[in-house]
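wait is this the right file?? whatever heres the structure
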């Protein structure tokens, strides 16, 4: 049965519309400062200049849904391997019932971004459905042949798909064959058969054998070496050997990696680093980051030193999506970007090893303007602010929020790539303070802006309602000016007047006001609209201001702004 071919033109259109979405999500504040990122020459440019590929293992979910993930994926890499989407359980979960959506998604992304694809993986003892594992020898052989013919055949005419992992992890650590269901049913014959069937399905693809813990010279890598030599002597089409390179800083770097790659290269095969990640014992520290960065440097240097090494695939790129913490408790942070897509020292190491000169920019962006609130409802507010500027470019903003009108702690509630943000899910008739800060392309962070206080409306669907946000314009030892206090009609119909109430700290006195009439009772101040600014259509806003004197050295300001109609 011939499966449908990939329809690249339709998919390109779909990817373009996805790319238009803006990324706005809640993220934790990163623990460590980040290293230079987008200010550096992209890895793919540097690697290509050295005749190598630099790739990543793609996870289908963020590739479809996260603009930040896609941006790095397409900017930094010229090669991609499907982390899971091409495995047997993903493509043929039951006999001759095929699902190509994830595999096609990755191939389409690669085509759209001029990336080469490595198919991973045809024959593996994991992520192979139960219906295959239980087959007898004849039926298993047929199943393998069909699976390879259909899956490899599907992309055989696609120039982007250049190579396949035909068999994966066939050895035990001591170099004996792993007694997988493949081996137990078919003996080692399945290996040569799989390579021959893959060659028949795509005569042009490089066909690889892939494994872990074979980076240095040891019993397992020597067994691999002997197998490749013997298969090639029998004209079995083994073109390439993949060294996964799931490394860990606590076990040391395999210092004979280059020598090992060279002995395989001497067999006439291409070699490649296929699943590079370097985990640490969490949490990160600067010292662990530095060791990890050195290991990444070592791995890139090993490949650069061996002409037969075609390139390096990193097993993901952001710590947000990595298999490591799920498998090794208390270990992780194995990749070159952190969970917030900030480049780590490991990124700088890879960039530098490929010949880049990442910027050493340390200049922070200018402080963003105080956020201005609008569209206040009982559960949401829109914030916008004057954008920051920066010598290497502002990449986005962090939005911080504290509860109430004073005290509490500011925590990050979201990020935005533009100078505006909409915060939803708020409680009715509740005060919040917001600040923003900017990030630049080199990972520098600006000072935080001044805060704006927002009080959500009472809600209840009466059609009325207003909100007030106050900004401290200037202050000195003995006083301050609050300007503007922005009054917004947050309801769905016009209002004919408004009253803003707020509290003065002890010892503070209003010494002047404009665009509203202020009356004071104890520490509570009531501001009524002036004759000319009481009428506000739905969504419209107006402003007033006032000046206060305070005891010398007191740093408190008026707080607790709430608005009522009329
Ligand atoms: O990263 C993959 C993870 O998402 C899967 O859950 C896991 C299933 O075993 O496979 C991971 O990728 C493996 C790769 O396919 C083969 N070499 C080891 C990788 C890490 O386990």
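ok assuming it is, sequence goes like this
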């Amino acid at each position: 049965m011939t499966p449908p071919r990939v329809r690249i033109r339709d998919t390109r259109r779909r990817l373009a519309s996805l790319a238009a979405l803006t990324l706005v999500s809640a993220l934790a504040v990163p623990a460590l400062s980040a290293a230079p990122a987008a200010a550096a020459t992209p890895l793919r440019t540097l690697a290509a200049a050295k005749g190598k590929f630099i790739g990543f293992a793609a996870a289908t979910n963020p590739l479809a849904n996260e603009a930040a993930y896609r941006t790095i994926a397409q900017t930094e890499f010229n090669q991609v391997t499907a982390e899971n989407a091409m495995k047997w359980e993903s493509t043929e979960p039951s006999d001759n019932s095929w699902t190509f959506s994830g595999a096609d998604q990755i191939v389409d992304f690669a085509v759209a971004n001029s990336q080469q694809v490595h198919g991973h993986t045809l024959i593996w003892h994991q992520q192979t459905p139960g219906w295959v594992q239980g087959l007898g020898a004849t039926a298993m052989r047929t199943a393998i042949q069909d699976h390879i013919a259909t899956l490899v055949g599907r992309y055989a005419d696609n120039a982007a798909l250049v190579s396949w992992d035909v068999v994966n992890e066939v050895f035990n650590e001591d170099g004996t064959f792993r007694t997988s269901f493949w081996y137990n049913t078919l003996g080692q014959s399945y290996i040569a058969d799989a390579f021959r069937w893959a060659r028949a399905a795509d005569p042009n693809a490089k066909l690889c054998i892939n494994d872990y813990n074979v980076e240095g010279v040891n019993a397992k890598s020597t067994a691999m070496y002997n197998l490749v030599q013997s298969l090639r002597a029998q004209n079995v089409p083994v073109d390439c050997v993949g060294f996964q390179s799931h490394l860990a800083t606590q076990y040391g770097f395999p210092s004979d990696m280059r020598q090992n790659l060279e002995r395989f290269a001497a067999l006439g095969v291409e070699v490649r680093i296929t699943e590079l990640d370097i985990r640490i014992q969490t949490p990160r520290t600067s010292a662990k980051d530095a060791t990890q960065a050195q290991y990444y440097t070592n791995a890139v240097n090993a490949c650069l030193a061996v002409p037969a090494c075609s390139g390096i695939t990193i097993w993901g790129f952001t710590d947000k999506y990595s298999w490591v913490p799920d498998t090794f408790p208390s270990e992780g942070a194995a990749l070159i970007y952190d969970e917030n897509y900030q480049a780590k020292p490991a990124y700088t190491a890879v960039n530098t090893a490929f010949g880049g000169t990442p910027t050493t920019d340390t200049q922070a962006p200018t402080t963003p303007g105080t956020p201005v609130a609008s569209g206040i409802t009982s559960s949401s507010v829109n914030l916008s602010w004057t954008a920051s500027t920066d010598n290497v470019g502002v990449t986005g903003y962090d939005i911080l929020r504290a509860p109430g009108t004073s005290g509490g702690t500011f925590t990050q509630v979201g990020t935005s790539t533009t100078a505006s943000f909409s915060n939803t899910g708020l409680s009715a008739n509740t005060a919040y303070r917001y600040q923003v800060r900017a990030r630049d392309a080199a990972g520098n962070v600006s000072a935080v802006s001044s805060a704006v206080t927002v009080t959500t409306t009472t809600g209840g669907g009466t059609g009325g309602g207003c909100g007030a946000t106050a900004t401290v314009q200037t202050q000195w030892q003995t006083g301050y000016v609050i300007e503007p206090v922005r009054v917004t009609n947050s309801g769905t119909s016009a209002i004919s007047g408004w009253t803003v109430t707020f509290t003065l700290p002890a010892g503070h006195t209003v010494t002047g006001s404009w665009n509203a009439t202020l009356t004071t009772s104890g520490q509570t101040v009531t501001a009524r609209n002036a004759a000319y600014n009481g009428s506000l259509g739905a969504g419209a806003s107006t402003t007033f201001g006032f000046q206060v004197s305070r005891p010398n050295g007191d740093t408190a300001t008026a707080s607790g702004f709430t608005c009522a109609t009329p």
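The chain has three domains: 44-353, 372-455, 466-564. so i think its the right one actually
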